Amino acid sequence: MTFQVFMQHLANGISLGSLYALIAIGYTMVYGILRLINFAHGDIFMIATYVAFYGVMLLGMQLWWIAFPAAIIFTYFFGRLVERAAYRPLRNSPRISVLISAIGVSFLIENLAIVIFGGRPKAFPIPPIFNKIIQIGDVSIVSITFFIPAITLALLVGLVYFINQTKTGMAMRAVSKDYEAARLMAIDVDKIISLTFGIGSILAAVGGIMWGLKFPQLVPLMGLMPGLKCFIAAVVGGIGDIRGAVLGGFILGLGEIMLVAFLPALTGYRDAFAFVLLIVILLIKPTGLMGQKLTEKV
Amino acid sequence: MLTIRNLNVHYGGIHALRGIDMDIPENKIVTLIGANGAGKSTTLRSIMGLTKISGGSIQYNGEELTMHKTKDIVEKGIVLVPEGRRVFPNLTVEENLILGAYSRKDKEGIKKDMDWVYGLFPRLKERLWQKAGTMSGGEQQMLAVGRGLMSKPKILMMDEPSLGLAPLLVKEIFNIIKEIHRQGMTILLIEQNAKAALEIADYGYVLETGAIVLEGKGKDLLTNDEVKNAYLGDAK
């Protein structure tokens, strides 16, 4: 393998890893606060991509900069709606009921999408700015491959600031540890949970749109595999830990691309990489790479 | 200030509180003592809206609290320092205190109260950046009380603040309670350490299996034979 080809693979791996990281954060944040795997997260990602697609169809290609943010805002409210309708009514129910509700709402969204959007693949519109070929030496890379990690990094910085420096972020961390004590601080726990879904959905929406720009084929079940893989990324990193989700996302994205690059014979097993990694991690370090054992102090 | 009438609570099939009447007058320390499982914590949880009541009334300055959410009750100025401290272990000392003032908007006042809390608990100031979960039990209790004070309560309720603390720390906590009271705070204190509680209390209630069986001035209860036998033991 030549250096140029390796660099191309590396760039692809980083940008795929960024996408996985963005989506994995949504899983891990919701898990952190509700102890729930939000199975609908991959479908929220899919919805965002479709809304962006229809937005561009409606407004025209040159207004993508309105259509994309509008899709992100829509997804923010959509994520909160899912929480309100499928999870909040079950707040005091056993966890298994909420889990079943999560699976149910995921199927519901997927099938509604098939009915509404149609099952036939749609081509995601790519504004020219994301489609330029950039030459660095002998390496030529599509501009979206650079946009993805850059936007991901910006979002991560914003998210870390929000969670660590703002009062709402503090409340979020407090709610993730102790609902009742948080209520005693006059924190509106339901509002914080809803907001957490909203933020996770924003990240999924940005991830979804960038996914569409990189892999421009939309189908209603497109959220399934990325959703599953990002869930794995979150578990590999240590579910509940945002740094872990980012780490897991990059390991998965880079690993997948490098597997195909170095062992072309295994290309067909590309999707299996995530699952093998999951099994290995669960055997060696069940709490995930960044996960800590919970210790309680009396 | 706080008036409780005929408070009833059922937990599943258990009648946990059977028609409790209590009064907490302004600027007084009132204590509620009783054995494990008598319903002390349930009483406080009912006041905060954390436990659903099945009947009765809880009035704060004439306003009915029983239909309100916990958040509203806290914002009205009734604050509970919960049993077992329940500080947020993943947050720093400072962040815990900031969350105590979550509903407040007056930045100046928050800053002032922060300094006030540091004055009461100098040890917290030394540990501003430490994660609350890594502190000792006594320090966590101080943080829990400090966090409660940060919301500028009118009534401070404390559930077993001395539980699991070394005797020296128990003394320190009680001194702080006295000091807060001296500065004008109304306090409802729940304690298993009945002697220490009755010594500082203006008025006391004795709770047994969900009903008030005895009440009176703190000093009178201290010398009451029944109380002596049941709660003070022989230890002097």
TrEMBL record, chain A:
Superkingdom per UniProt: Bacteria
Primary location class: membrane
Localization: Cell membrane
InterPro entries in the record: ABC_transp_permease (IPR001851), BCAA_transport_permease (IPR052157)
GO molecular function: L-isoleucine transmembrane transporter activity; L-leucine transmembrane transporter activity; L-phenylalanine transmembrane transporter activity; L-valine transmembrane transporter activity
Keywords associated with the record: Amino-acid transport, Cell inner membrane, Cell membrane, Membrane, Transmembrane, Transmembrane helix, Transport
Entry GO CC: plasma membrane
Keyword check for Chaperone: no
Topology of this chain in the membrane: Multi-pass membrane protein
TM spans (from-to): 6-27, 63-82, 94-119, 139-163, 192-213, 219-239, 246-266, 272-291
GO-annotated biological processes: D-alanine transmembrane transport; L-alanine transport; L-isoleucine import across plasma membrane
Similarity remark: Belongs to the binding-protein-dependent transport system permease family. LivHM subfamily.
Name the UniProt record assigns to this protein: High-affinity branched-chain amino acid transport system permease protein LivH
Encoding gene (name): livH_1
UniProtKB/TrEMBL annotation, chain B:
Signal peptide coordinates: none
UniProt entry keywords in alphabetical sequence: Amino-acid transport, ATP-binding, Nucleotide-binding, Transport
UniProt-listed CDD domains: ABC_TM1139_LivF_branched
Recorded GO MF terms: ATP binding; ATP hydrolysis activity; branched-chain amino acid transmembrane transporter activity
Pfam family membership, one: ABC_tran
Taxonomic superkingdom: Bacteria
Ranges for domain ABC transporter: 2-234
Record-linked InterPro entries: AAA+_ATPase, ABC_branched_ATPase_LivF/BraG, ABC_transporter-like_ATP-bd, ABC_transporter-like_CS, BCAA_Transport_ATP-bd_LivF, P-loop_NTPase
An individual GO BP term: L-amino acid transport
PANTHER family linked to this entry: HIGH-AFFINITY BRANCHED-CHAIN AMINO ACID TRANSPORT ATP-BINDING PROTEIN LIVF
Entry similarity comment: Belongs to the ABC transporter superfamily.
Protein name per its UniProtKB record: High-affinity branched-chain amino acid transport ATP-binding protein LivF
Chain's gene name: livF_1
